[in-house]
Amino acid sequence: MVFKKMLSAFGVGGPSVDTVLTNPNTRPGLTLDGQVNLVGGDAPAAIEQVVIGLVTRVEVEGHDAEYSGTLEFHRMSVSGAFELAPKQQLSIPFQLPVPWETPITDVYGQRLHGMTMGLRTELAVARAVDKSDLDHVAVHPLPVHERILEAFQRLGFRFKHADLERGHIRGVQQTLPFYQEIEFFAAPQYASTIREVELTFVTSQRGVEVILECDKRGGFLSAGHDAFGRFQVSHADVDRVDWAQVVDGWLRETTSRYGSLLSQYGPSRGHGHGHGRGPGMGGMVAGAALGVAGGVVAGEMIEDAFEGDFGDFGGDE
Fold it and tell me: Please, which residues bridge with residue 136 across strands?
């Protein structure tokens, strides 16, 4: 009997947990629906609480090196304390709101290379090891994200990589402790001035703040450096503008002499820059001066999706 109690303390013969999502696909601002299924063990168990949380992999900069770690960024309790009888089966339904700033993991059915996302379920059992269960989650872009990503593709940019950087962008209202960087190789027509572009969306119920970081090439008498642009768009702008035209304007404005000068002032992000280049996004001073509301530019509606798959955005993790 003593041996069995010891085994139970290490989770052997204890209750089991399995979370089933109604649909693992979601978007920022929507919900993840599902149920937590519990099965009692060999003995009664005092359950302290059942918690679900969204987890992802985040890049963190230390003093000497950069490393990645798993971070839970949003959690919700689905049940308080209760007693689970031996072999008892119990199902607890839930609806987890997905934060507006949740990073995008999938575009047109293709996983963005470098992105991971999961829903972790924790079953806290009194006087025993906590049980957990992890389920894959796919976060798809909102329509405005989709149009902007599509515009980069139409302009000839090739997707390189996506990751999450721990920290905050100066002057931007963030609720999560990280931001997503979606990296592109420059399109041929921009290659004389830009090597790469990093795109960040900071999304809210009102719209999206779009931050561009362009790795500018050096000129005959100047060294290469990063230039930054910051632009505000509304969810309502989705079908009102020619997004390729808007994004082209953003890029030209960001890499202009004015944008470059702006980027050279101000302290950098608190957690440094993932690539060790330039002043960091914190260099954006008076970013609103660069801002162009998407609705300002009139244009034709563009296609909802590309022909076939989304090619360059794919990549298996």
Answer: 118
| Nearest Cα residue to 163 out of 130, 114, 110 | 114
What is the Cα–Cα distance from 49 to 86, expressed in whole angstroms? Answer: 17
Asked if residues 231 and 295 have their Cβ atoms less than 8 Å apart, the reply is: no
Q: Indicate the angle between helix axes 243-254 and 143-154, nearest 10 degrees.
A: 70
pTM, two decimals, is 0.77
Please provide the DSSP assignment of the chain as one string.
Answer: -HHHHHHHHTTTTS-EEEEEES-SEE-TTSEEEEEEEEE--SS-EEEEEEEEEEEEEEEEE-SS-EEEEEEEEEEEEEE--EEE-TT-EEEEEEEEEPPTTPPP-EETTEEPTT--EEEEEEEEETTSPPEEEEEE-EEPPPHHHHHHHHHHHHTT-EEEEEEEEES--TTS--SSSEEEEEEEEPPGGGTTTEEEEEEEEEE-SSEEEEEEEEEEPP-SSS--EEEEEEEEEEGGGTTTS-HHHHHHHHHHHHTSHHHHHHHTSS---TT--TT--SS-GGG--SGGGG---GGGS--PPPPSS-SS--GGG----
CA dihedral of residues 10, 12, 15, 16 (deg, nearest 10) = 100
Per-residue pLDDT for the chain (317 aa), expressed as one digit of tens each? Answer: 444 444 444 456 789 999 999 999 999 999 999 999 999 999 999 999 999 999 999 988 766 667 788 999 999 999 999 999 999 999 999 999 999 999 999 998 899 999 999 999 999 988 777 788 999 999 999 999 999 999 999 999 999 999 999 999 988 999 999 999 999 999 999 988 899 999 999 999 999 999 999 987 654 444 455 788 999 999 999 999 999 999 999 999 998 855 444 443 332 333 333 333 333 333 332 232 223 333 222 222 222 222 233 344 454 44
